[in-house]
Amino acid sequence: MRNDEGQAAGRVMIRYILFDLDNTLYSAKTGMEEDFQRRIIAFTARFLGITPEDALAQRQEGITRYGATIEWLIGDKGLTAIDEYYAAVHPEGEEDVIPPDPQLRLFLESLSLPLAILTNSPREHTDRVLKKIGITDLFTHIFDMRWNGNQGKPLPAAFTRALDALGSDAGSTLFIDDAPRYVQGYLNLGGKGLLRDELGRHPDYPHPRIRELPELIRYL
Ligand SMILES: [Mg+2]
């Protein structure tokens, strides 16, 4: 359905697209997320003075109450060295595994809608990854974890702050993320949310999903 047909039918039309970054704007097959997950566990083990195995177990339990590891470390473990954490988890050069993606660039340009990013990663990581993909200039806004006061998705405020800054609302902003609980958080706000489940990791997820980003045009 074209935009004008949708409006005639009384449907709420999508006026903005809000993307997650990691494993959403690049393939989960790159392995970058696994790389920084390993560094998160290594930092946590060093910070708490425990083994990596214990750090992994504690974090798996703690993360259920928070959106991101840094929120858990700040909230439950007294972390204050936030820049140190981000530098350890996201060192320069981590983006080397990400290939440029001219096809994605063409696709995003073809959408004729304003695009923004909402990520639980820090800005320096986001900037490096976008530059490597070759799409830095395509986004009107980048909402990173520090921008959200290190309190990220799926907290409702992480979404509503971003939407307010965009001058948009959940019902007319399509949000795409590879993490089911982040998409669910957005759906709970009455938002239009899509899961990018590239590798079929979430067979029981009950809401709309795509494998590749070009499939999102079905939801505009
Ligand atoms: Mg992600």
Return the average pLDDT rounded to an integer.
Answer: 94
Structural class: alpha/beta
Main-sheet strand order equals 3-2-1-4-5-6
Give the fraction of residues assigned to helices. Answer: 40-55%
What are the secondary-structure elements, in order, as H or E? HEHHHHHEHEHEHEE
- The count of helical stretches stands at 9
Major sheet: 6 strands, parallel
What global shape is seen?
A: globular
Catalogue the unreliable spans: 1-9
- At CATH level 2, the architecture of the largest domain is 3-Layer(aba) Sandwich
What hetero molecules are bound to the protein chains?
magnesium ion
Ends: how far apart?
8 Å
Summary, kept brief:
By secondary structure, the protein is α/β, with parallel strands linked by helices.
Fold and architecture overview:
- The chain is of the alpha/beta class and 220 residues long.
- It has 2 domains: 3-28 and 99-219, 3-Layer(aba) Sandwich (Rossmann fold); 32-94, DNA polymerase, domain 1.
- Helix content is 41%, strand content 10%.
- It has a 6-stranded parallel beta sheet, covered by helices on one side.
- It is globular, with a radius of gyration of 18 Å.
- The site of magnesium ion has 7 residues, from loops.
- Magnesium ion binds next to loops.
